[in-house]
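Researcher: I'd like a structural prediction for the single chain below. Treat it as a standalone chain; there are no partners to consider.
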Amino acid sequence: MVDLSIVEDKLVLHVRGADKLWALKTTLEIPLRHIAGVRADPSVARGWWHGVKLPGTNIPGVLTAGTFYQHGQRIFWDVHHPDNTVVIELRDEQYNELIVEVADPNAAVQMLQAALPQA
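Model: Treating it as a single chain, here is the predicted structure.
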């Protein structure tokens, strides 16, 4: 699971607990202008295939954490419980998407949408 916060003009994702070990990351910082979209989407985290592991951990039905390569995209995962999944689409970043578990997906989506620069 990750904690999301907005610091100045960046989204900061703090990887929690033992997931730091499984995901091989502790923090990600993404400029808000690089976020193309955000949605709560539990369906994306269901199933067993999440791509080719780069550095990461995949125990089907239990945990997906770390960097994966799927459908030509580089994706960061940190999900135990698919029902709490948020997908953050990126542009001009090392990752194409962040697929993460948060405590309250709807609140996270609302917070991010309110913080995104208006086009």
